[in-house]
Amino acid sequence: MEELITFTWTNLGLNLIPGALVWVIQAAVRRWPPGDKPNALYGYRTRRSMASPEAWAYANRRSIDLYAVYSWPLMAAAVPMTLYFTLDTAQLVLYTAMTVACVWPLVVIERALERGEHLS
Q1: pTM here?
Q2: Are 13 and 72 in contact (CB under 8 A)?
Q3: For residue 101, what are the contacts with CB-CB under 8 A and spacing of at least 6?
């Protein structure tokens, strides 16, 4: 027996949460940047990013930009997910995508820092 998919504004709102959350995080960090020197409280903190002020500035700027880029497809995906999938399935897919969107910048930035792209 097939499950009937019905569009509701509540489902759309719930499906927009992952993308909106990533967007709010990047907007907050862009509004209140972590500063010019590495600190242990706030910002993109890894061993490589905290090694120098240049690496710190590059890593924080790049992570904010990547979060901004990844938030829009997540929000756009909410519409087809609401139209064609049940809420449970849509939430599973969108929150998994949000997790990937939050972890993938670590891979991108750490590779760039390892190659020394922050120095150019």
Answers
A1: 0.88
A2: no
A3: 22, 67, 70, 71, 74
Extents of the domains making up the chain? 9-119
Query: Residue 21, Cβ neighbours under 10 Å: how many?
Result: 15
Q: Are the CB atoms for 15 and 93 separated by under 8 Å?
A: no
pLDDT computed for residue 20 by the predictor:
97
Q: What is the Cα–Cα distance from 109 to 59, expressed in whole angstroms?
A: 6
Task: Decide if pLDDT at 75 tops 70.
Answer: yes
Location of structure tokens 């497809």? 73
Question: What is the token pair recorded at 13?
Answer: 């709102």
What beta strand segments (E) does 1-120 contain?
none
| In the predicted structure, residue 1 carries a pLDDT above the cut 60 | no
Cβ atoms of 104 and 70 closer than 8 Å: yes
